[in-house]
Amino acid sequence: MSQGNTGVTSQVVNAEACPVREVIDRVVGKWSVPIIIAAARGPIRFTELERAIEGISRRMLTLTLRNLERDGLLKRTVHPTVPPKVEYELTSVARELHDTLLSLTGWAERHRVTIAESRAAYDEERGIG
Known about the structure:
The chain has helices at 10-27, 32-39, 46-52, 58-70, 92-126; strands at 44-45, 74-79, 85-90.
């Protein structure tokens, strides 16, 4: 360890990063991002989400919606109809997250070719693949 890093242990780093890691793990989960993107267009019903997100099971959709609601990223509204009409919409915090996701996906789109070329060059130099 360098002289400037004395006192920095993995326990210190993990203790400070843990709360941030938990939030990031939740919002970039496999199903959270597609739900946030789908709900960004306005209130959306469960069945609409189910149809819009390919490969998600009803159970996983339910669990992810609950977690996003618990985290304050989705607002769930139950309309008093028969059968009950339930809609989900992004909170202001999730709208900010959506903007960030759009920036990230834009960055990925702009740099995907460069990254693919870098991977190929790295693999070729090391005889991988």
